[in-house]
Amino acid sequence: MKEKKQFLASAQQSLSELYDRVHSAPTLPLSALEPSRTALLVVDMVNGFVKEGPMSSPRVGALNKKLASLCKACSDRGIKVLAFADTHSMDSPEFSAYPPHCLQGDWESEVTEEISRSCVYTRISKNSTNGFLEPEFRTWIQEHPQIDCFLVVGDCTDICIQQLALSLKAEFNRQNRPARVIVPASCCETFDLGLHDGDLMHLVALYSMGEGGVELVADMEGLE
């Protein structure tokens, strides 16, 4: 491995190129997507991450209004909306890594009022960071074989978004089925905490998803 000084010098150049790549991504018009073949997957826009609680983040909170508009625009076009919601019991092993949050039946685990009012959606409760693993979601995919385009938005870019998007893409690849998994950079966010620099982790996660076959776009057009 490189010495620290060499590593930081080369990493700076790589980060500069990653930044340019992400910020030069195209904008995707919502009208370019076929509604009958598209689903919007909204990840963890729940009160405990958006508004209040030990895992809440102002960065994620700032997404709430925009994603409510996106949900409405998709719903108005006939695009199906699924809302993944962190939902845990007190004995969740996840609490060895994170403080207790989004307990089942608690206000924290509810999808935000703004998003709930904006559209009709299918709720997928999830007990891990990877919503793809939830049996309810796997069943939903099987029951909607015509859906082969997925917009993935919400939080956190480098955890739940990344795991869901890459798992979804890998599963379709495994089946030799072409599919679009799209992540708009401006429609997902992560948090700042200690060494976890939100801007850095957001950028690196977007790059990692792109390397895994996920389609990155800068933003969505067609929102009110």
Short summary:
With 224 residues, this protein is an alpha/beta fold.
CATH fold category name: Rossmann fold
Mean pLDDT: 94
Strand content: 15-25%
Q: Helicity level, as a percent range?
A: 25-40%
CATH superfamily, called what?
A: Isochorismatase-like
* C-alpha-based Rg, rounded: 17 Å
Name the CATH architecture.
3-Layer(aba) Sandwich
Largest sheet: 7 strands, parallel
Number of helices: 8
The separation of the N and C termini measures 49 Å
Description:
This protein is α/β, with parallel strands linked by helices and 224 residues long. The chain has a single domain, classed as Rossmann fold (3-Layer(aba) Sandwich). The protein is 39% helix and 18% strand. It is built from 8 helices and 9 strands. The strands form 2 sheets. Strands 2, 3, 4, 5, 6, 7 and 8 form a 7-stranded parallel sheet that branches. A two-stranded parallel ribbon has the order 1-9. Helix 7 links the parallel strand 5 and strand 6. Helix 1 packs across helix 8 and helix 7 runs parallel beside helix 8. The N and C termini lie far apart (49 Å).
Please give a handful of descriptors for the protein shown.
18% strand; two-stranded parallel sheet; 39% helix; 7-stranded parallel β-sheet; Rossmann fold; 8 helices
